[in-house]
UniProtKB/TrEMBL annotation:
PANTHER family from the UniProt entry: ACREF/ENVCD OPERON REPRESSOR-RELATED, ACREF_ENVCD OPERON REPRESSOR-RELATED
DNA-binding region: 35-54
Pfam families, A to Z: TetR_C_33, TetR_N
InterPro entries: Homeodomain-like_sf, HTH-type_Tx_Regulator, HTH_TetR, MT1864/Rv1816-like_C, Tet_transcr_reg_TetR-rel_C_sf
Annotated keywords: DNA-binding, Transcription, Transcription regulation
Source organism: Pedobacter africanus
UniProt name for this protein: Transcriptional regulator, TetR family
A GO molecular function held by the record: DNA binding
Length: 199
């Protein structure tokens, strides 16, 4: 490996270490505790070195948001691929979304602003568009071969999202029911919306 490659590898490793340290701080202390100074202390660098990689904390939050959407997109896509029938695909995709929210709680809080302010600059992320398209395309497929208006598909997507995200948010701020009750509510809601689309 040449010196240019080594320098590039070192830069990539440092960038990864910064993001890993930020996530570790958040898991230990919450998003409100995150600061450039704490990240620098965690990886034993000076704060100015952190600024060489990210202009400010928002830059770190934006990159972590992007990473969260990459993980979520892969999980939703895998859930869809594991099912044969469109209705089963859609249900599995939302269950994958639900599971992501609790397995990657810190990412979910950042991505959707649960119990914190989420990143403002995320609207143009291709990772979000990829995830939205997975859901939109599956909802279109479920509409029995018709060519639905984009607004109708969008309404159905937001109906799903409102219910699933609402239930997740209630539980993330510790006001939800036990897991068995949550699963029952989630599956009832998903099956009800899917049945409504199919009718």
């Amino acid at each position: 490996m040449g010196s240019k490659e080594r320098i590039q590898r070192l830069k990539e490793d440092t960038r990864t270490n910064i993001l890993d340290a930020a996530l570790k701080i958040v898991k230990e202390e919450g998003w409100q505790a995150l600061s450039m100074r704490k990240i620098a202390d965690k990886i034993e660098y000076t704060a100015p070195i952190i600024y060489e990689y990210f202009h400010n904390k928002d830059g770190i939050l934006l990159e972590l948001t992007r990473q969260g959407y990459v993980i979520l997109g892969k999980k939703v896509k895998a859930a869809k691929k594991a099912q044969e029938h469109t209705a089963d695909q859609l249900e599995a995709m939302w269950i994958a979304y639900w599971n992501f929210a609790f397995k990657y709680k810190e990412f979910y809080q950042l991505m959707y602003g649960v119990d914190m302010v989420c990143c403002d600059q995320k609207k143009s992320m291709p990772e979000i568009e990829f995830l939205d398209n997975l859901f939109f395309d599956t909802i279109k497929d479920l509409m029995k071969g018709e060519s639905p208006e984009e607004n109708r598909v969008c309404r159905k997507y937001y109906t799903f999202w409102s219910i699933v995200h609402g239930l997740i948010s209630i539980n993330l701020v510790n006001k939800g029911r036990d897991e068995a009750m949550n699963q029952h509510i989630l599956k009832d809601a998903l099956k009800g919306i899917i049945k409504y689309i199919n009718d």
